[in-house]
Every structure is written in C-alpha cells, then in structure tokens.
Design a protein that fits this description.
The complex is a heterodimer of chains A (175) and B (196). Chain A is mainly alpha-helical and 175 residues long. Chain A folds into 2 domains: 50 residues, no CATH class; 92 residues, no CATH class. The radius of gyration of chain A is 38 Å and the shape is elongated. Chain A is built from 6 helices and 3 strands, in the order αααααββαβ. Chain B is an all-alpha fold. Chain B folds into 2 domains: 109 residues, RNA polymerase sigma factor, region 2, helix turn helix motif (Rna Polymerase Sigma Factor, Chain: A, Orthogonal Bundle), CATH 1.10.1740.10; 79 residues, Arc Repressor Mutant, subunit A (Orthogonal Bundle), CATH 1.10.10. In chain B, α2 packs across α7 and α7 crosses α9. Chain B is elongated, with a radius of gyration of 19 Å. At the A-B interface, α1, α3 and α4 of A face α2, α3, α6, α7 and α9 of B.
C-alpha cells in the first residue's frame, strides 16, 4: 500500500511541475498519483495544471536545419582561431607600443653624455605610405613607414646635405 | 517573433558512451559527430524556447558547441552531467543575447502590421503562449523551458541553473502562476469564439 502524498505537497508539486506525472520527481510519483485518486481538491488543481500544459504544448513543429548540423560538425575541423581572432584587438596596442619604444630610443636623454647620442636611429611614423602604383583609395594606416635616418648621422653637422632623397622608405605591412 | 520549434525525436540518437568525450578530445571525428547528433537538437530547442527566435537559437547552439569543443580536453568524467552543462551554457548565452541591445528590426520581420488583433484559433493561441513565455523573467523562463520543454528532471534542471531543487520549484511555480493568469483569459476568449 503506497502512502498518498499530503495534499499540500501535491498542490506544490503540480504547481511547479504541471500535470504530467512523467515530470514529477520519481520518488514522489506514486504517492502523488495516490493523492490524486483520493482528493477532489487534488483533481481540480491537476485539471488546472493540465490546461496550462496544453497551452504550453501548442508550441511545436519545424526541424533542425541541416546547415546548422554541418557547421557544428565542422567545429572539430577548424584550426584554433584564438590568435587570429585576437589580432584586430591587440594590433593597435602592439603598434603603439613599438612606436613609443622606437621614439623613446631616438630621443636623446639629457642624462646621457652628448657625445653618446646614437645617431643611427630609426624614427617610425604612422603616416600612410603612398606608393606610385597604389590607388589612393587603398591608402590607410595599415602600413608603417620606417624612416632610416642613417644618412643624417653620416652627415652630422652638415645639414645642407641632408635632402629628402637620402631618406629611404621601407614599408611594413601589418595586415 | 519567429515560430518556436520543437524538433522531432531522432530515431538515430546515439546512446550515452562513457569514452566518447575522451575520443572526441583526441580528434576522433566519429565521436564528435555522435556527441553533436545526441545533444544538438536539445540545445537548439532550448535556445529557441529561451529566445523565441529560431535563427538566434541556432547561433547560440553553435556557440555552445564551440565552447564544448574547447572544453573537451579538460572535461572530467563521462557524459554524465554533459546535458546539464550544455543546457547551462545555452541558457546563459540566450540570456546574454536577450539582454544585448536590440538590433534594428525591419518591416519585413514585423510582418503585416495591418493584421487584425482579434483571436482566431490555434495560431493566436500559439502567439499568446510565445508572448507570455517571452514576458517571463529570465530565470523563470529558463526553469520552465528546462523542465517542461526539455524534459529535464528537477535535479538536472537545478544543476543546469546552479540552484537548489527547492529554488527551482519556486521559479517553476511562479512562472506557471504568471502564465496561467496571462493565458486563462485567452483560453476563455477562444472558447467563447468557438461557441459563437
């Protein structure tokens, strides 16, 4: 003989899990069914819950798209993308850090001996590099120009020889 | 709102296999395929009920499995607990997506704005249920989706939501009370329309 669940507990059960005994906790199911068989109040609460279940069950149909299954299966084939995915985020900061480092090295420190100032430094500018065969629409900040100022150093003290022709540009594509 | 979908039960759903996760982690394509076949429909359906949008649900399902694939190497144990873990991720991603700023909605998505608002049978009933479900607080909706639509036991659903069974039952009771109060008048109107 199975003990019927107390009515209060049955009402709580139906209020939470609805009318389908399959959703009721397995260890309470038999006692709840017994309560339902014995109590008119239990049957009224059960019927109310069944009405709501029927409303909820109107949402149905449509199938899983084959494209979704294919794309999820392909996850295992895809190479790790974390590094590539981080590039757009990290790149501006890395470039800024590199620029700051190079500029910092190129500026003579007042604490250094004036004769110790290394003349062979490179200054990095972020201006777009315009090449003769480059369409203007493609000019952007995705290229860094390294300005080699060795020529200035070689002609230190003789600024009259330092013309723009002495500046060699080398571009470093970033993307 | 797109129609919420219920996927038919697959006749070829693979049974649980204790070593399958380890084999998938080792690069066994067959093991990964079996995991996907076993769990993808439920994960997608869960997201669809959470979001009320089939396309967004598929995005969430894909994100969920990307996270699963990353976790395979460190997964402890067999497939016990995998369903709860997948549901937890799908629910959380769905809630995050629902809270994100709304994207612009086109008139095409809105549909026929001149459609009469009156009740006209099962289609209206379904729309009211979708709207009532969408209006629930996130945690209440999640509890209801996991237990009513996904068929998780109280213990499994509580595990997925990382709460006690008692807290889950409280969420369920509040959700069902709200839905009953919202939908009972609709049902009465529909019954009245049938009798007219």
């Amino acid at each position: 003989m199975i003990d019927a669940l107390p009515l209060d507990r049955f009402l709580d059960l139906v209020a939470s899990y609805g009318a389908d005994p399959g959703r009721w906790p397995a260890d309470l199911r038999a006692g709840a069914v017994s309560c339902l068989a014995q109590s008119e109040a239990a049957r009224m609460a059960w019927q109310e819950a069944a009405n709501l279940d029927a409303d909820l069950d109107t949402l149905s149909s449509l199938e899983l798209s084959p494209e979704l299954a294919q794309s999820v299966l392909a996850i295992a084939d895809a190479p790790p993308k974390q590094g590539i995915a981080l590039l757009p985020t990290v790149l501006p900061y890395a470039a800024a850090a590199a620029i700051a480092l190079v500029i910092g090295l190129s500026v003579p420190s007042p604490l250094r001996d004036a004769t110790d100032v290394a003349p062979q430094v490179a200054t990095v500018i972020t201006a777009p590099v315009i090449e003769a065969d480059t369409d203007n629409s493609e000019v952007g900040l995705t290229t860094l120009a390294l300005v080699d100022v060795t020529a200035f150093a070689d002609n230190e003290g003789d600024t009259s020889d330092s013309s723009s022709d002495d500046i060699s540009l080398s571009s470093l594509p970033l993307l | 709102m797109a129609e919420i979908s219920r996927f038919p039960e697959s006749r070829h759903t693979p049974a649980a296999d204790p070593g399958r996760i380890a084999r998938a982690a080792a690069g066994d394509a067959g093991a990964w395929s079996a995991l996907v076949n076993r769990h993808l429909p439920a994960v997608t359906r869960c997201a669809a009920y959470m979001l009320g949008d089939h396309t967004e649900a598929e995005d969430v399902a894909q994100d969920t499995f990307v996270r699963l694939h990353r976790k395979l190497d460190s997964w402890e144990g067999g497939e016990d607990g995998l369903s709860s873990w997948l549901h937890r991720v799908a629910v959380n991603l769905s809630i995050d997506r629902k809270r994100a700023p709304a994207r612009p909605v086109s008139l095409v998505e809105i549909g026929d704005v001149s459609e009469p608002a009156g009740l006209d049978g099962p289609l209206d009933r379904k729309r009211h249920v979708e709207a009532a479900l969408a209006g629930l607080p996130d945690r209440q909706r999640a509890a209801l989706v996991l237990v009513h639509y996904q068929g998780l036991s109280g213990r499994e659903a509580a595990s997925a939501l990382e709460i006690s069974v008692e807290a889950l039952e409280s969420l369920l009771a509040r959700a069902r009370r709200t839905l009953r109060n919202t939908l009972a008048p609709v049902r009465a109107d529909l019954l009245g329309a049938h009798h007219d």
